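Re: [ENG-882] Designed sequences occasionally contain unexpected residues at chain ends

Forwarding the minimal case from QA. Structure tokens:
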């Protein structure tokens, strides 16, 4: 009986330690946020220029992938200028992009930022409206 109680106690302690170890780790992906800091409108025309600020928060503190590996995919938009990534706090980095509106057939503009790594990566998306061409 004494051995059974001892085994149960050891097993319970191990389960608690495993739970604590997994619950303290962040499993959330990098956060990516967009802000239009110049040229914001409800509906854009082809040729309009906007300036975006992109903020990436490294939720895992140390990411094996550098910020330069952040990929941008666009539909109806074209980057015409950009700053380098700049650290603004311990885990936050920002970059400004000058973007030209090209538009498309349906007028739905999409700007995606994608980070891929073994710690879940990250994804952010900005959707805008434009006059269809």
């Amino acid at each position: 009986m004494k051995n059974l109680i001892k085994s149960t106690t050891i097993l319970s302690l191990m389960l608690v330690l495993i739970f604590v170890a997994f619950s303290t780790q962040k499993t959330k992906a990098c956060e990516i946020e967009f802000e239009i800091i110049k040229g914001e409108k409800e509906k854009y025309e082809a040729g309009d220029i906007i300036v975006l600020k992109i903020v990436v928060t490294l939720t895992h503190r140390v990411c094996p992938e550098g910020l330069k590996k952040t990929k941008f995919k666009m539909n109806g938009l074209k980057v015409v200028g950009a700053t380098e990534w700049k650290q603004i706090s311990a885990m936050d980095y920002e970059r400004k992009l000058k973007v030209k509106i090209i538009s498309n057939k349906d007028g739905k503009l999409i700007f995606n930022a994608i980070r891929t790594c073994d710690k879940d990566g990250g994804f952010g998306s900005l959707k805008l409206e434009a006059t269809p061409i």
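QA comment: On inspection the terminal residues look reasonable. Residues 64 and 128 are 32 Å apart (CA to CA). Proposing we downgrade this to a documentation issue.
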